[in-house]
Amino acid sequence: MNHFATLINGSKPVLVDFFATWCGPCKMMSPILEQVKKTLGDSISIIKVDVDRNTAAAAQFQVQGVPTLILFKEGKILWRQSGVVQASQLIATLNHLNLS
User: Fold this and answer.
1) Catalytic-residue membership of 23
2) Catalytic residue chosen out of the listed positions 8, 14, 20, 26
3) Do 36 and 88 form a contact (C-beta atoms < 8 A)?
4) What is the CATH number of the domain that holds 48?
């Protein structure tokens, strides 16, 4: 958990994918996140957090459903959304938030 706190409190934006292994829509997010990472490169970190294995993190950020995506920068939540987000929409949203 300590590593997680260090990551989300850094100056680099971190997109956290709260997911569960049993969740069908969560599995759909993996290739979408790979595409986002390929497009945005090192301007953003993307990490996955299994809500069943990290219940404290899920509770701390009030994750009710999976997948839930939360974008952090310097410990602040800049954006969050539950459900599957298409790559083009996610990239546009992240670009709009001007992550640099």
Assistant:
1) yes
2) 26
3) no
4) 3.40.30.10
* Cα distance between residue 73 and residue 50, in whole Å: 20
For residue 2, give both structure tokens: 């300590």
User: The sheet that has 68-73: what strands, in order across it?
Assistant: 45-50, 14-19, 68-73, 76-82
What are 48's two structure tokens?
A: 């996955």
Length of the chain: 100
pLDDT in tens, 13-64: 999 999 999 999 999 999 999 999 999 999 999 999 999 999 999 999 999 9
CB neighbours (10 Å) of residue 51? 22
26 in catalytic set: yes
Q: What is the total count of domains within the chain?
A: 1
pTM, 2 dp: 0.94
The residue segments making up the domain with residue 45 are 2-96
Kindly state the average pLDDT of the residues 72-76: 95
